[in-house]
Amino acid sequence: MLHSKIDLNLFLVLVAVYQEGSITEAGKQLHLSQPAVSHALSRLRDKYQDPLFVRHGRKMIPTQLCQTIMPRVLSSVAELESTLHDIGDFDVHQYQREMNFGFRDILESIFFPELATDLMANTPNITVHSRQVSRLDMEAALESQALDIVIDVLTPTNNDIQHTLICDEHFSLICRKGHPILSDMSLANYINAEHALVTLKDSAVNTVDMALAKHGVARKFALKCEHYFAATSVISRCDMLLTMPNAYARLLKQQMPVEVVPLPFEVPILPVHMYWHKQAVHDPLNSWMREKLLAIAKRVIPPSS
């Protein structure tokens, strides 16, 4: 142990509790007992005159002061470790962790078939847990480390949230095989048909209907629901139309007797971004997973989709 005015090992405990969100799990990572971790944390609390973490259920949530100092602490620890190990020495097999994602069901269907099978075959020590998160709750979930990564449409965020474009959503028309509109794809026939609409609880903007409004027309909805799979099952059996993201439409075409065709009007591309908190910048596993998701997106969602 290093000794001076403050024991530098205390910062390793701080980092472990911050990353694990648990005193018990931090102890396992550091090969220390739970009382030893609690004692180290108590010494830091005395130094900073701040609780540093507050318990929320089973999770240790960092205080505002802790959030403020952690980027420098993480950077300093990483810099010290880099003097011992080359950054290229990162080995994902040394980690055993569950990655928590905020994905809509449509994104689970696009990413998970390839991601989950790859993880099971090559890195079974890494597991995933996915749930839907509203755009209003996304920032808090990333900040509290309830979620590691979120993928959703481009939305305004504060400066603590990092993000990058992962893919573009192009919209297509999906309908039953033999639908009359397939022989005369026109805006008039599109408007005159009955439509199914998939809506998310926190969806404030519908880009398709905004595009139609520019033509001075609107759709008639015979069905509104929250899941594309259910809506596709319905339209495969009747003359309703469904407008949806192209990548997922092509996946559903493999499972149901439907056709996927271009729309008779232009809808702006919807950028989809991957989000993570700035505290994860120095987390090699989070970085590794982000790169993997970007690579999957390039394979399963071609730019011309």
TrEMBL record:
The keyword Transferase does not apply. Gene3D superfamilies: Periplasmic binding protein-like II, Winged helix-like DNA-binding domain superfamily/Winged helix DNA-binding domain. Pfam families: HTH_1 (PF00126), LysR_substrate (PF03466). Keywords: DNA-binding, Transcription, Transcription regulation. Residues 6-63 form the HTH lysR-type domain. The keyword Ligase does not apply. It comes from the Bacteria. InterPro entries: LysR-type_TF (IPR050389), LysR_HTH_N (IPR000847), LysR_subst-bd (IPR005119), WH-like_DNA-bd_sf (IPR036388), WH_DNA-bd_sf (IPR036390), YidZ_PBP2 (IPR037402). PANTHER family: HTH-TYPE TRANSCRIPTIONAL REGULATOR LEUO-RELATED (PTHR30118), TRANSCRIPTIONAL REGULATORY PROTEIN (PTHR30118:SF15). Belongs to the LysR transcriptional regulatory family. This is LysR family transcriptional regulator. It comes from Paraglaciecola mesophila.
